[in-house]
Specification:
Structural class: mainly alpha
Shape: globular
Strand content: under 5%
Order of helices and strands: HHHHHHHHH
Number of strands: 0
Radius of gyration: 14 Å
Number of helices: 9
Distance between the termini: 35 Å
């Protein structure tokens, strides 16, 4: 287990309720697929945990709430850029939104993720 990554993930889970209003029970339920928070920490499945939480927020929050969350929490979302990128990518996978809305979501995320998100969702040619 990567101790620093584990602490960042644990703190991320703790802060997510405060920052988004999503109930802790829903956050815990989203992680159950990987044996809960303890399973993520034990196995070091941080990327998978971040993805699960991103998909949860994509379901629970409106486009505007996700945009505000991204714009207002840059330092929070970049504590572990390698793993947290997958959280922001999962947020962008919100279903039933237009390309313009998805582009707005991408541009509200921390700058260091935007280039990769733009390419991932087909807004930039891959060279």
């Amino acid at each position: 287990m990567r101790t620093e990554a584990a602490e960042i993930f644990r703190e991320f889970v703790t802060q997510l309720t405060t920052l988004t209003g999503v109930k802790l029970q829903k956050i815990e339920a989203a992680l159950d697929v990987h044996d809960g928070l303890s399973g993520i920490l034990r196995e070091g499945y941080f990327i998978l945990g971040y993805q699960q939480l991103g998909w949860l927020l994509a379901r629970e929050l409106t486009i505007k709430e996700i945009e505000d969350f991204g714009a207002n929490n840059t330092s929070f979302l970049t504590q572990d850029e390698g793993d947290m990128y997958f959280f922001t990518q999962a947020l962008m996978e919100k279903s039933d939104i237009s390309s313009d809305a998805r582009l707005g979501l991408i541009l509200s995320m921390p700058e260091q993720y935007q280039q990769y998100l733009l390419m991932r969702f087909g807004f930039c040619p891959i060279s």
